[in-house]
Design brief:
- The complex is a heterodimer.
- By secondary structure, chain A is an alpha/beta fold.
- Helices cover about 70% and strands about 5% of the residues of chain A.
- Chain A has 14 helices and 4 strands.
- Chain A has a 4-stranded mixed sheet with strand order 2-1-3-4, with helices on both faces.
- In chain A, strand 1 (about 45-55), helix 3 and strand 2 (about 75-80) form a beta-alpha-beta unit.
- Chain A is elongated.
- The mean pLDDT of chain A is about 90.
- By secondary structure, chain B is an alpha/beta fold.
- In chain B, the strands form 2 sheets. Chain B has a 6-stranded mixed sheet with strand order 6-7-8-3-9-10, sandwiched between helices.
- The model of chain B has no long low-confidence stretch (mean pLDDT about 90).
- Classes of the chains: A alpha/beta, B alpha/beta.
């Protein structure tokens, strides 16, 4: 136990004395959550829009003002003719042009032709789609109010977005950021710190000491376990208090699943360090084998359901996928262990496999 | 010199596939002597030492270190020997005091013992004023001496030094050997590998290793007479280039 303590203390010295490590440990979670919370958002606000109004009547003006009133658009000016449209898109002063035809209002009242042309900049397809949807929403709303009395049969959809009523992006990102950071801190940093001892030659001295290899590894991993857990707490706290992401379910269960994922990441880190001989290899392996799949295939950014089938199959072996599902369920839906047992079981399975593989690898190396 | 042995090696072999890095070596080391383990790079010195300190399992043969069997008692061997590896083995981002405390802890010394040992060590190496300096900021000679002292922190009966003076300037090497003498004079056995032939003269007895085998074993004088050479360099050339043996 004394041996163990001396060693853990030393490991903390390494971490606390390396500015870069500290920066990753403390700076990364804060920067990531602020970045995802504020900057990277799927919602569009104040997209520049231009109006080409051939009608210039009460109806066209009313619709224009309804569109511009929404938070999604900001009016950047009126166009005089069709010829100006191309230029407006080219110089980037608009993302969308709404064209009202001649006699729009008159026709509208007479019920002859009710068309508005929407032209969107589809260099960014998602944005273009959203903008078109927003304007269509305004038009539908306008129709509904105007026809309330005249149309006897009509079906209105009343939508309710459960668990995230305002469709806040940050709700969705918090579990993903936790997964990425835990992979980074637990798996990447431990694998680098273990291979560093190999590279420097201190590992040999440690192995020649009365400490057993198991003791060495556990002592090396403990500081990262504590720090990873702290990182997860920082993200959860920032999410809750800055971005008001709810924690609907049991906090104990949430922290328990987080701890399980940390163990999994640590065992992956150990496995990498049994394969890699240098810090550089460990870094590359961690980035390629852990970070990329965690970001791309976990459902964090791209929904698993919309991936091609082969990638969907591969995503099954990305541990973060299961962790993110479990965390979302606990935080947003308030699910209990009874609901997420499958994910928990899968994470346990991964952890055991990685630990077993590390022990095997380690034994082979000693022979 | 007594007939007791602290290291007893018999027909030791380490094979990697068909390549025998250590090929059937046998020798004894007596308590209190400085035993030099010489050979060119790649002759098998490091492989042999790694088996003796319990890091690697031999392919076949027997060895006994400080009364413990290298197959069954590796844990006991580790507690009872000191080891300084080829690469520098202290932590550069820890201070002198922290390094001493760490290795004291690893070797199971009590808190009180570590404090008194630290004091004694700093005094002997005249490093008292540098106790809280990072290892990184120390000159190489001091680092080397400190690494040696730290390897001896649990006062083992025998210490294994694997090319402790590799890449070190002649003055520092000289100082380092003074420290080795000082330690040997207290009765500690020193097992040292080197490829510097001039260092062979400092040893009580030496073994010359060539491609996994021991080609010569004895005191420096015995070897020089045996190979009719003026100095150890010549002995080495005769063994390595002309394939002569005297084991």
């Amino acid at each position: 136990m004394k041996r163990f303590r001396a060693f853990v203390v030393k490991e903390f010295y390494h971490i606390l004395r390396d500015a870069r490590t500290l920066l990753i440990l403390i700076g990364m979670p804060i920067v990531q959550i602020l970045l995802f919370g504020y900057a990277i958002t799927n919602e569009i606000r104040e997209a520049p829009i231009k109006i080409l109004d051939h009608a210039k009547d009460a109806t066209s003006r009313e619709i224009t003002s309804k569109i511009v009133e929404t938070e999604y658009f900001a009016l950047s000016g009126y166009l005089k003719s069709e010829a100006d449209i191309e230029a407006a898109f080219h110089d980037g002063t608009t993302k969308m042009v709404v064209v009202f035809p001649q006699d729009f209002g008159k026709n509208y009242e007479n019920g002859i032709k009710r068309e508005v042309q929407l032209i969107a900049d589809a260099t960014d397809p998602n944005t273009a789609n959203s903008l078109v949807n927003y304007v269509e929403g305004v038009l539908a709303d306008f129709n509904l109010k105007a026809n309330l009395t005249s149309m006897p049969f009509q079906i209105n959809a009343i939508t309710r977005m459960r668990y995230n009523p305002l469709l806040e992006g940050v709700y969705y990102f918090v579990p993903g950021i936790i997964a990425i950071l835990l992979m980074l801190v637990s798996a990447m940093m431990t694998s680098i710190s273990i291979t560093r001892e190999k590279e420097l030659g201190t590992m040999e001295v440690l192995l020649a000491s009365p400490m057993s290899s198991g003791q060495i590894i556990i002592a090396k991993v403990i500081p990262y376990l504590i720090l990873s857990f702290l990182d997860a707490l920082i993200i959860l706290a920032l999410g809750k208090f800055v971005f008001e992401v709810p924690i609907a379910g049991s906090l104990a269960l949430l922290l328990g699943v987080t701890l399980l994922f940390i163990m999994l990441a640590l065992s992956l880190g150990i496995l990498i360090s049994t394969v890699a001989q240098t810090q550089q290899t460990a870094l590359l392996l961690s980035l390629m084998a852990l970070m990329l799949p965690t970001i791309m295939l976990s459902g964090f950014i791209f929904p698993v359901e919309s991936m091609p089938i082969p990638l969907q199959i591969i995503s099954n072996i990305v541990p973060a996928r299961w962790f993110i599902v479990a965390v979302k369920d606990i935080m947003l839906k308030g699910s209990g262990l009874f609901i997420i047992w499958k994910e928990v079981l899968i994470l346990c399975g991964f952890t055991l496999v990685f630990i077993a593989a590390s022990i095997r690898k380690f034994k082979v190396r000693l022979e | 010199m007594s007939n007791e042995t602290i290291v007893k090696v018999k027909n030791l072999v380490k094979a990697f596939g068909s390549f025998h890095a250590v090929d059937d070596i046998s020798f004894d080391v007596h308590p209190g002597e400085i035993f030099g383990f010489l050979g060119a790079n790649g002759a098998g010195k490091t492989t042999a030492i790694k088996m003796l300190i319990g890091l690697w399992r031999p392919t076949s043969g027997e060895a006994n270190i400080a009364g413990f069997d290298i197959y069954k008692d590796t844990e006991k061997i580790k507690k009872n020997i000191g080891y300084m590896s080829q690469k520098f083995s202290l932590y550069a981002d820890l201070t002198v005091r922290e390094n001493i405390r760490l290795f004291g802890g690893i070797y199971g010394l009590s808190r009180k013992h570590i404090i008194s040992k630290t004091d004694q060590l700093l005094h002997r190496l005249e490093l008292r004023s540098e106790a809280d300096t990072l290892i990184d900021d120390l000159p190489l000679g001091w680092k080397q001496k400190l690494a040696f002292s730290v390897a001896m922190i649990h006062e083992p009966k025998i210490v294994f030094l694997d090319e402790p003076t590799g890449g070190v300037d002649p003055i520092t090497r000289r100082q380092f050997w003074e420290l080795i003498y000082e330690t040997a004079s207290t009765g500690t056995t020193i097992f040292v590998t080197t490829h510097y032939m001039d260092e062979a003269e400092y040893c009580d007895r030496i073994s010359m290793m060539v491609s996994g085998k021991i080609a010569g074993l004895g005191t420096p004088n015995e070897l020089k007479t045996g190979f009719q050479s003026k100095n150890m360099d010549e002995v080495f050339i005769k063994i390595a280039r002309e394939g002569k043996t005297l084991a």
